[in-house]
């Protein structure tokens, strides 16, 4: 029986390319997304073992339902949390790194490894919809350079994610850059105070949801 892998936001862009690569490496892949049509097309393009599960992961209720559904289907080898959006992207990614590092420590002695991976810039559907207003004001004069930076083919941007997901012997809690090396610069801004603030925000959202 094949090992199972789940890729959120796996119906397009980087998520779909990651799902295809995992299928090529022998995983039975489930992709999660909001659009039934895109999900069916994605599953078909991935291969015969691929499945699509519809879920809106902006809803905590649907996140919990999805978790229960996936758990009921049996052991899971890989979970690639690819879902995200462009609004408040920098802060969201920093909060995500805080959560990754904390989860890695909490699960260190359980046999479950947790990683983060920066794929670098790529020509994703989200990048195609970018407008200058999404950038912090100091960066907006550099809009042309930013747009030029997201022309890289998506297929070239999945290396760090696939490496984190499949390479043996990696140290849990490692954050990988596009060159597959540990990217300490990405976590440098993450002070204990910021990590604590991210934790409080997460706990507050979970309580309210």
From TrEMBL:
<dbReference type="InterPro" id="IPR036291">
    <property type="entry name" value="NAD(P)-bd_dom_sf"/>
</dbReference>
<keyword id="KW-0560">Oxidoreductase</keyword>
<dbReference type="GO" id="GO:0016491">
    <property type="term" value="F:oxidoreductase activity"/>
</dbReference>
<protein>
    <recommendedName>
        <fullName>SDR family NAD(P)-dependent oxidoreductase</fullName>
    </recommendedName>
</protein>
<dbReference type="InterPro" id="IPR002347">
    <property type="entry name" value="SDR_fam"/>
</dbReference>
<dbReference type="Pfam" id="PF00106">
    <property type="entry name" value="adh_short"/>
</dbReference>
<comment type="similarity">
    <text>Belongs to the short-chain dehydrogenases/reductases (SDR) family.</text>
</comment>
